[in-house]
Amino acid sequence: METVSLEANFDAKLTRNEMIEPKDWMPDNYRKHLIRQISQHAHSEIVGMLPEGNWITRAPSLRAKIVLLAKVQDEGGHGLYLYTAAETLQISREELLDQLHTGKAKYSSIFNYPTLTWADIGAVGWLVDGAAIMNQVMLQRTSYGPYARAMVRICKEESFHQRQGYEIMCRLAFGSQEQKEMAQDALNRWWWPSLMMFGPPDANSPNSANAIKWKIKRESNDQLRQRFVNQTVPQAEFLGLSVPDKELKWNDAKGGYDFGTPDWNEFENVIHGNGPCNKERLAARVEAHDKGRWVREAAAVFAAKKKGMDKAA
Ligand code: 3HC
Fold first, then answer.
1. How many angstroms is it from 191 CA to the middle of ligand 1?
2. Is residue 113 within 8 Å of residue 275, measured between CB atoms?
3. Would you say 285 and 101 are in contact if contact means Cβ atoms under 8 Å apart?
């Protein structure tokens, strides 16, 4: 088929809301866009294990420890589904990881902030996983089949993560005065970075136009940010905590909250490697990758041997 009709076929599929599958023809820019987004998403999942992982040994009860362990393991699983989805676009896992380890690929800004207290683990689950779900629900209907299917299970698990975080916040907010202050302090530090997770304002988002045209993103950064604020403010009120935004105000006319502007200079710094923990996070990932080399080598030798045995049988 000629490229023109291949492209027309691709466009028609999108119009009919059919998924694009790995063996289908796709424009090269669509493929590159997906590799960029899915791999950044995968990197976010595995880097996201770090700030929470450092609280596993300090969880305040056995129950809290088991739940946090499960959550951190889930994030590792999300990374695997997403790397596998990206690999269907003709790029190897090694190349994707190399892009992360050499600082060429981005991962979510949010994981460059430190988790200073146990309340931060509550705030991360409540706000960070809450923001992630807000964005990811629409990705279950993204136009690329393997990505959409990976997102179904991820969304179910992220919902559990959000509940885990909110439960911690409830325990603290309805606990002693000191615990409530810890919860408020965590909200103060995580609120604005959570709003930044949705990406720059629509007017300054270079990738959004193509993402919407190709039905990779179904809603814009600003629409999702607004929905997150609308949903989360009443949850903060229930906890008796105040959202650290003087401009926050219900707006009847729009049926949502007006809110202040995140510090976009801070965002730019963080996504360009200069946030509070960027260097630490990257170094930890590189170290983990190096330490895992023998496991990858042993698995490859085992797989090759098994293939030989299967052939001989
Ligand atoms: N952190 C880091 N980089 C970000 C960012 C953020 N929060 N928001 C935007 N950027 C980057 C973009 O990647 C892009 O850089 P690039 O062109 O070099 O790739 C640049 O800033 C401009 O942003 P755009 O709005 O044009 O980019 P997108 O259209 O890709 O939108 C996005 C950004 C909303 C994050 C989108 O990529 C997306 O929906 N990604 C999938 C979801 C995802 O990655 N979530 C990670 C959240 S964490 C998570 O899920 C783990 C869970 O366990 C909590």
1. 17
2. yes
3. yes
